[in-house]
Amino acid sequence: MSHEGVSDAEVDAFYSKVKEDAEAYGYHLNSDVAFTKDLLKNILINNKRYGYGACPCRLASGEKEEDLDLICPCDYRDPDLNEYGACYCGLYVTKEILEGKKKLSSIPERRPGPEERIKMKSTPFNAILTPSLPVWRCKVCGYLCAREEPPESCPICKVGKERFERFM
Ligand code: SF4
What we know:
- With 168 residues, this protein is an alpha+beta fold.
- It contains 6 helices and 7 strands; from the N terminus they run E-E-H-E-H-H-E-H-H-H-E-E-E.
- Helix content is 35%, strand content 11%.
- The longest helix has 18 residues, at 33-50.
């Protein structure tokens, strides 16, 4: 069967790839396979429509430059996983959610509005030199990342978040 030019076989192949990548990097897909495949199908539809896999739960502008932050996985996935246990769409969830130790709640939109995004783009270079987020360092392999909390596991050497230290 095909939905807006996307076949079930394409959705199944995409599901396998996204799941494999998620697991390789310490992330988890929602265990509701039908729901998850529906989100992935809409990412594939967006890819055919716009030429990039924009978030299935947000309205894309159709301009890739404008929507770079919305290409799945979006810039907001990790902060939402840390704070709510799931990304805005519910495609990615934490281990606590998967294991039923935490309940899913509704997730407010974290993406800044259009005016704020324009302001952020025109931020002077010297303002970028002072990080607005803490920088975390993996004590095992030296991987650095700027975010509110260290990742669940290091994407390079796969050690757990407890092996990260605050770097800046
Ligand atoms: S909210 Fe989830 S599904 Fe939507 S783009 Fe971000 S990571 Fe992908």
